[in-house]
Design a protein that fits this description.
With 251 residues, this protein is mostly beta strands. It contains two helices and 18 strands. Helices cover 5% and strands 41% of the residues. It has a five-stranded mixed sheet. The chain has a five-stranded mixed sheet with strand order 12-18-17-14-15, with no helix packed on it. A four-stranded antiparallel sheet has the order 2-9-8-7, with no helix packed on it. Bound molecules: copper (II) ion (CU).
Length: 251
């Protein structure tokens, strides 16, 4: 993927490699398990700047962007989640960002490719993003612009890079249409687009999207470790009973 100009500063990974960040500003882990850290905005001096998992071919990073310092012109704050590919030929982009927004055309046009990427939460919210065989959890957005983040490596079976499958979901009154009704075990990213006139959401396996306004899209990453049939519903009152429900099979 090519990156055009964008208003934000360099990635934490590159700053670290250039020696602009001290080793103790990176919360590093490898092997299995998980790490939890409070990550400060990269645009402000001091503090821990990124969680980094180092694999043999790739690294996986979470860092925080706020509209301060070099990032003062960014269009959207939040947590960037990305992979760094060590084998990318020189001159090509080695960063793969996990976008937070499903349909960012307008933001992209105004603000460049960073704009769609930051994952964010409001007060009291928690967000979970499954990517690259990891679970990235945004546990808390702090008043000073930092985020408390937990990163968990999935069990060895889904070692890097985890295969993920995208299922497109169309939500409208009063039914869902899925691009596929089954998937193998592993991570499934449901890209849910509301083509109706009312607000809808999509819930499966205990996880759900936020409420999606008409014309908007939300992504929901779910890691299925067991085969079986999983019921999905719209949780807006009355919608499931009116037909917004179905069964998704993990094989
Ligand atoms: Cu609905």
């Amino acid at each position: 993927m090519a990156w055009g100009p964008h208003p934000g500063g360099m990635f934490a990974w590159h700053r670290w490699k250039l020696g602009w960040l001290d080793p103790d500003q990176i919360a590093c882990f490898s092997g299995r398990g998980q790490i939890e850290a409070t990550i400060a905005p990269i645009g402000r001096p001091g503090g821990t700047k990124a969680i980094v998992f180092r694999g043999s071919r790739s690294a996986y990073v979470a860092e925080v962007r706020q509209p301060i310092g070099e990032d003062s012109a960014i269009c959207k704050k939040g947590v960037l989640i990305y992979a760094v590919d060590f084998q990318t030929p020189a001159g090509q982009a080695d960063i793969r960002l996990i976008p937070a927004l499903g349909d960012p055309t307008d933001l992209l046009r105004r603000c460049g490719p960073h704009a769609a990427a930051p994952h964010d939460i409001g007060a009291g919210e928690v967000s979970r993003v499954s990517a690259f065989g990891f679970r990235f959890e945004l546990l808390e957005a702090l008043a000073d612009g930092s985020y408390r983040i937990r990163v968990t490596r999935a069990p060895a079976r889904s070692a890097e890079p985890a295969a993920s499958r995208t299922i497109r979901v169309e939500a409208k009154e009063m039914k869902f249409a899925l691009s596929a009704s089954s998937a193998p075990r592993g991570t499934v990213v449901f890209v849910v687009r509301n083509t109706g006139k009312l607000v809808h959401d999509f819930k499966i396996a205990g996880r759900k999207t936020p409420l999606i306004r008409p014309g908007k899209t939300a992504r929901l990453g779910v890691t299925f470790t067991r085969r079986g049939k999983y019921r999905y519903v719209c949780t807006v009152r009355g919608h499931a009973a009116a037909g917004m429900k179905g069964t998704f099979t993990v094989r």
